[in-house]
Amino acid sequence: MPRQTLTRNKIPQYSLGDFRHLHRNGNDNSSFGYNNLSADKKIKGFEIYSSQGLVSAVGPLKSDFYRMSITLSGSVDVQLGLEKFTHQPGTISFTYPGQVFSKCNIRPGTFGYYALFEAAFLEDFLPPDKFQQEFPFFSADGQLFIQLTAPQITRVADFVDKINQELQQLQPERDKAVRVYFYLLLLEIKRGYIEQGLHLVESDNRSSYLISRFHKLVSKHFLKERKVAAYAAMLGITPNHLNRTIKDVTGHTASEAISSMLTQEAKALLRYTDDTIANISFQLEFSDPAGFSRFFKEQTGQTPQVFRKNA
Predict the structure, then answer these.
(1) Which of 44, 82, 88 is nearest to 69 (CA)?
(2) For residues 10-18, average pLDDT
(3) Hey, how many other C-beta atoms are within 10 angstroms of the C-beta on 294?
(4) CA separation for the pair 126, 43 (Å, rounded)
(5) What is the pLDDT of residue 290?
(6) Are 158 and 217 members of one domain?
(7) Cα 202 from Cα 125, distance rounded (Å)
(8) Which of 42, 61, 147, 167 has its CA 20 to 30 A from that of 5?
(9) Both 161 and 230 in a single domain?
(10) Cα–Cα distance for residue pair 240/285, rounded to 1 Å
């Protein structure tokens, strides 16, 4: 498997140009969306696929573009940062640049679509720096998993079909049509997001809201902040209150959540780079490689060397 070469303090983050081998079977000959699309029909900054030809597991890894996954039938397990969810029919999940994500346990009969795109792809409609404000489910502050009703998910799938039809042809102003249909698709999702009240700052369930905010903060700051007290301060509560809430609801401590995020990052580095164990321990801000190896084995039951060999 091709690997990226790392420099000091750089976490692997894939772009659209070097991502395909991580999510598509090399011998898949399906023709939906961008899969096996001829060079003259490709549009810069945007790709869309069906789940046919998807590899059995993806990640954990990072990308510098946005991702959206739509499930129409069956189920699949998705993890975004520390948030885990099982996709069911009508589930959509969202990934923003720099976020650690993974997908696994794709059950028989599962089918859906996924889109990969850069914010600049929709700059005809809004500036790239306003994209997350317009569509908050693509940001660290938004709800990264949503469940749409049957009519809503049908309308979303209809826009996917229109996008695919445009991609497969070379009609006048085809690029503009694809952008329009994709923007309308996102607006359809946003309507469902708003109808469910997910755009509101807080949930009525304060414990769930607190845990969600904690998980998002950990996903964003874990490389620099390892202490529970630091996250409690960000949330404006005491460390004891944060620990108690996390433990009562999830069964795990706040410290365990931080360690879990760090382990995901370590797995991505070990699996997708050729960097040395020593340099990986440096990037993850361990005091020495031995300390990193002890931590990794405590979390996974394997040494970093064994995990890399079997990845």
Answers:
(1) 88
(2) 76
(3) 13
(4) 18
(5) 95
(6) no
(7) 29
(8) 42
(9) no
(10) 26
Does residue 187 contact residue 195 with C-beta atoms inside 8 Å? no
Tokens for 121, please give them.
Answer: 């792809």
Give the residue with greater pLDDT, 202 vs 53.
53
Nearest to 22, CA basis, from 98, 103, 112, 106:
103
Beta strands in the chain (DSSP E): 46-50, 58-61, 66-73, 76-80, 83-87, 91-95, 101-104, 111-117, 145-147
Look at residue 159 and tell me whether its pLDDT is greater than 60: yes
Q: Taking a C-beta distance cutoff of 8 angstroms, is the pair 125, 131 a contact?
A: no
Neighbours of 257 (CB within 10 A): 22
Q: What is the pLDDT of residue 6?
A: 38
Helix (H) or strand (E) holding 239: helix 239-250
Q: Can you tell me the mean pLDDT for 152-175? A: 96
Q: Which pLDDT score is estimated for 120?
A: 94
Classify the phi-psi angles of 109: left when phi > 0, otherwise alpha if psi is within -120 to 50, otherwise beta. Answer: left
The CATH number given to whatever domain includes residue 20 is: 2.60.120.280
Question: How many CB atoms are closer than 10 A to CB 192?
Answer: 21
Q: What is the bridge-based pairing of β-strands 101-104 and 76-80?
A: antiparallel
Contact 239, 232 (CB under 8 A): yes
User: Does 46 fall in a domain?
Assistant: yes
Residues 34, 176 share a domain: yes
Domain that holds residue 257: 206-310
User: Mean pLDDT across the chain, nearest whole number?
Assistant: 89
Q: Is the pLDDT of residue 7 over 70?
A: no
Q: How far apart are CA 272 and CA 252, in angstroms?
A: 28
Sign, CA torsion 191/195/201/207: negative
pLDDT of 209 above 70: yes
